[in-house]
Write a structure and sequence with these properties.
Largest sheet: 5 strands, antiparallel
Shape: globular
Helix content: 25-40%
Number of strands: 9
Order of helices and strands: EEHEEEHEEEEHHHH
Number of helices: 6
Number of domains: 2
Strand content: 25-35%
Structural class: alpha+beta
Length: 197
Amino acid sequence: MDRHYRVRYHDKGLGSTTYGVVDSYCPEAKKLPKGQVLVEHAIYPKRIVVEESTLVDIPLAYGGEYDQYVCLMQDLHEILADRLGYAKLKPGHQFSMSVGDGAAHYVVTKVRQATCTVEWRGFNGDRYVDRVFGWGGSFRRRDVEPLVGIGHQPFSSLLEPDRVKTLESEIGQKMIGFQRTWKQSPQELLAMYSQIV
């Protein structure tokens, strides 16, 4: 069972093929019957049990199928977040926290008067999780707003002012390229893209 790591699998809940990593070492995974594995979604903080025989192993070579999927999802999240502006906190805004030699990424999913809900995203290849934000949860708005950049121009936009415009102009071709190369497009990827066009 330890031979699996990055995989393509069918998620019945999503109704399509998607990507994830096999978790062989957590207590839940060790209790599964032979022939079943626990798979963590590549981007979202969810895990499901999958029949091992249905997994397609993805090579760990950088820039391959798994990495292209993650990069496309990150680009789509970034485009959607930028379109929200930075005057007021809204679902879809994102931020990252430095962890180890990379970052843990988060997206705001719900905004209330004094609090907001944030959710982890697997945009970092090491799948880092921040010690405060964890896999996500409910946090005070006043703690999250500065991380998103509410009320001022995000620092990243000062370094690369045309980055999101470039992403927007290239995203259609990237989607077509992914479909042609890997002969499929996960439902959640198409759903995100439909919010862009």
